[in-house]
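Reply to dn_fold:

You asked what the input looked like. This is it:
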Amino acid sequence: MGDRKFYLYRRKSGVYYAELLSQDGLRVLYRSTGSKNRDTALFAVAGWLKEGIPIKGRVKPLKEAANFQSAMKYLKVGDLNEAQALEIAQELKKRGLLAFGISSASQGNQVFVSYLREFWCYETSAYITDKKMHGKSITRRTCRCAQNMINKDWAHFFRDKLISEVTRQDLREFGFSLRERLAGKSINNVLSVGVKALKWAYQEKMIPENITEGLGGFTGGGKARDILTEEETEKLFNETYWNDKKAYAAALLAETSGLRNGEIRALRAADIGDKLYSVKTESGNIQNVYMLFVKH
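and this is what came back:
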C-alpha cells in the first residue's frame, strides 16, 4: 500500500467520494466529499486527514476510526468463545461505552420451558422474591395456575427450544395454535405466563431484546355459549358428578347468589358474617343464614 492514504472515486451523480485508509491499508471510511469538482474534493479530504473526520457533529481522528475498524475486523474473522466475549464486554463497560449489565451468555442457553417452570416456582423464583421485596404479592395459586399452563400448553409447543432461540414469530404462532380451542381472554392468560418471564429475562440481560414489546392480545373466539338443558342443569348441581368439592361449592354459590367466577375466587373465610339472619326460601320455609360480604 505504501504511503497511500486515500482513493478518490467519482459516482454516476458526478459527486466525488473518498475512501480513506489506515496505515496498514484498512478501509477506515468511505464517504461523500459533497463536491463534483475534483480539486474541491481533494481539498476536503486533505482537511479530514489533518483535522479529523466530522461525524454527527463531532470530529473523529482518523486513528480512532482506524482502531475501531481493526477491532471490528478481528471480531468478524476471529473465533471467540464465551469467556473472551464476556471479557470484551466488560472492558467496554469499564470504559463507559456499555450501559447495560454484563451476564454470562450461558443464561440464554437454558431450555425455555425449564426456565418458565423455574420462573413460576413460588419457593425459588428470583422474580417472585424480587416482587415480594418491593411489596407486591404473588400467590401460590397464581404460580400453580402458571405451572399448569406451562405443562399443558407451553411445554408441548416449545419443547427443547432455548430462551435465546425464542422469537416474536414463535409467540404469534403459539397464540394462533391456542385459538383453535380457547377464547381470546384465555389465550391472553396463557401468553402472559411466558410474556412476563421473557420481559424479566430481558431486564436481567439474559436475552439481548425484549421480543414481547408491542405483542398484541387476542379477542373473541372460543366456543359459543348457550342455555343449559334440563338434563345438563340436573347434572351440574348433582354432587356425584363433581371431583373437586371446592368447585362444586363455588357452582352452588354462583347459582344461589349470582356471584361471578372472579368474585367467588376472591372470597375469604373472614368474609362470612358471624350473625344469623332469618330469611324465607322460595318454598316458604324460614331458614337462618349467615351474611356473605363481598369485599375483595
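The chain is about 45% helix and 15% strand.
Hope that clears it up.
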